[in-house]
Amino acid sequence: MKYLMSFHNKQGLENIFPIAKLLSENESNEITLLDLRSMYAQPISNLEIPKNIKLIKDRSIFKNIRKLNKLNKLIFLFSKFLKIKYFGTYFDVYIFSPGGFYEGRLTKKFRNNSKKTYFIEAGAKIYLYLNSQKELQPKKTFLDNVNGYFTTGESPKIKLETFTNKKSVIFNYGVPRYANIVGSYKTSNNYQSQQINNLLFLTSAASYHKVDWESSWQAKIIEEIINSSLSDSYILNVKVHPRDNFSNYKKYKNLKNVNILNATDIESDIRNNHCIISGPSSSIHEVSFLGRIYTVIWPFDNYKNEYLSSESLVKNVDELFEKISKLKNDLNCQSNLFDMQLLGAQKFINIDSDSSAKKIIEHIIKENKKRN
Questions:
Q1: Is there a contact between 294 and 270 (Cβ–Cβ < 8 Å)?
Q2: What pLDDT score does 370 carry?
Q3: Among candidates 206, 155, 178, 191, which has minimal Cα distance to 294?
Q4: Which end of the chain is more exposed for a tag (fewer CB within 10 A), N or C?
């Protein structure tokens, strides 16, 4: 069986690579990784690829193929016509994480050639939960050429089934990128309330996604936090999202009690801090599995749901200071918040994600056994 497996960011690579390595253990399989990171203006690191796995680094004449206008899309597709045709003809199965414009064209070609395609979710889709994120919403038909969509957890599965009306192709095995944090959680000790001294603010990729209003709000709220009494009372670490613009934060580098973290390991950053601050993000659920509490700061979407629980939500810097002070001074409150957040996280991240690579492979092999 010939497998083409693409990724266009770090999260996608963390999903695809474990599956590629397991599939390559069968000598009858031919595994080819399609690295699309440069096409989506993503950071590129060197990869150590086993000898029995091939690697293709695909490139584009455009710096970033996200949100191309109609003319540029036509130019791009013309430049990739022969390559898309080759991929759809030569390979038997296409597996990708995450999705995008190019991946959509590849799935269509594979489906037209009566071959199967599989989409592995990189993170829960926030647009399924918050009206403010609707501009990130794809067409409801985006799974039309996909034979299997593997979600991070049960809540995204249920939401996506309603959104797409494609219940028969959506499955919850968890995803490989969460295998390590789930495995680590299973062997960790119970949460212990602690003094809160270090705060970690996680920035978003709003600027990369060209959500200008959110990017502007984020810049303003970070400045407010840094200029507030929070930075007098706590060490404030700002973790810059890999797809955010680091240069926007350089002006804060030399301020007292403020650190700007760039190109650092997010799991280590979370563990090295006591309370995490973020807008609505799939990262907040990772925080719970890493043994930390979080607060969501978000003044939009004036309602409560799985992403915006009243226990975790604040709307402004004053509320944030009050929330963190309470958590610092009331250890029972801190422990109860962690328990509540952990239960919520398990709806978004499958507790058995450490076996997801094996389960996804079994699913794909079963559906394609007639081709063997």
A1: no
A2: 59
A3: 191
A4: C
Q: Average pLDDT of each block of 10 consecutive residues along the chain (372 residues)? A: 96 96 95 95 86 94 90 95 97 96 96 97 90 88 95 96 95 97 91 92 89 92 93 93 89 91 91 94 92 94 77 93 94 94 95 97 90 52
Q: Supply the pLDDT for residue 371.
A: 54
CA distances from 329 to 194, 197, 323, 324, 335 (A): 10, 12, 10, 9, 12
| Residue 176 to residue 182: CA distance in whole angstroms | 10
Residues 6 or more apart whose CB falls under 8 angstroms from that of 365 comprise: none
Q: Which residue has the tokens 């407010």?
A: 224
Residues, the chain: 372
The total of other beta-carbon atoms located within 10 Å of residue 87's CB is 22
Q: What is the DSSP string of 214-279?
A: HHHHHHHHHHHHHTSTHHHHSEEEEE--TTS-GGGGGGGTTSTTEEEE-S--HHHHHHTSSEEEES
Cα–Cα distance between 321 and 326 in angstroms, integer?
A: 9
Q: How do strand 2-7 and strand 30-35 relate by DSSP bridges?
A: parallel
